[in-house]
Amino acid sequence: MSIEQAPRLLDYKGSLDQTPLLALLQSMQAQRATxxxxxxxxxxxxSLFFLFGHLFHxxxxxxQGEDAxxxxxxxRQGDYTFDPKSKLPTEETIxxxxxxxxxxxKRRGVPGSDNGTGSxxxxxxxxxxxxxxPPARAPEAVSERAVVSPQQPPAPQAIPEExxxxxxxxxxxxxxxxxxxxxxxxVDFPKLLRSLSADRLTGYLRLTxxxxxxxxxxxxxxxxxxxYDGGAVVTTGRTAFSxxxxxxxxxxxxxxxxxxxxxxxxxxxxxxxxxxxxxxxLARFVDVRALLQYLQEEKIHGSLLVRAPxxxxxxxxxxxxxxxxxxxxxxxxxxxxxxxxxxCAESKTRIEVKAV
Length: 356
Hints:
The chain is an alpha+beta fold. It has 8 helices and 18 strands. The protein folds into 3 domains: 109 residues, no CATH class; 93 residues; 80 residues.
């Protein structure tokens, strides 16, 4: 299966003289990154917190909120580090979109707030050896919680130009079923998206057709990412959204709306985009329970996939904690991974591990 190429995630550390905060903010948003960005200069330090590319909290030097963004915007010296596995705080001191924050900084005359200064989005090199890649996606930090904003989110109309490289559109877990088997021929698609935005859906919209499958991931009513599998190519971002919408406009297939927790939405994003670190292990040669215990001890953000001849099972992990397990035939998330590990009794079963 060929995979549509997409931009890579930004690096974990660097200097502000090469990559100023403006470029970092733009790259965080473009990559839907989750985690903590720290910027430092001569004893001063600011921490900025992101969830799916949304900047929701910042503090440093006795300030917080947008004021803690304006000051380091002007820095042209110092360094930064990004931790995609950091624990996100419960505070939410920023509700405005990044573009509005930058516009306000420009209005105030804050140096470094204007694209015209020559800043460019971060070049997004490969992560250093031994490091793990941030989720974009998310995704995301340890023990994420829902960041509840008092302001009503806009309708999800801005679709990313490109998404992360999806490896495969795997079976997805089922949570609360909001809408089931909506016939696309009778659905007003833009109105449905507006409704899901107004309802602040955290979960996904799934399309099932005869020869294609699609999924649009939501967080708090905002469209986070789109995936589409047409049988030969897995696409993401704007391309996937367009293909999804085309199927709906043609009245092909049906749709379901599933509500899930923020942690599970993050895990789904990583399941679909994280690199495979172990692949093709024959289950008959592997102690799968010992492997799962090792992944928990290493505090892995990722998933354990078990492919049996007639079934597929997935265990979702976040910071080593078990978020749930499910199979294609039993998609409801359960806490006991035995529903997946028992598939290893088949002699031809293979095991994969994906992690960020």
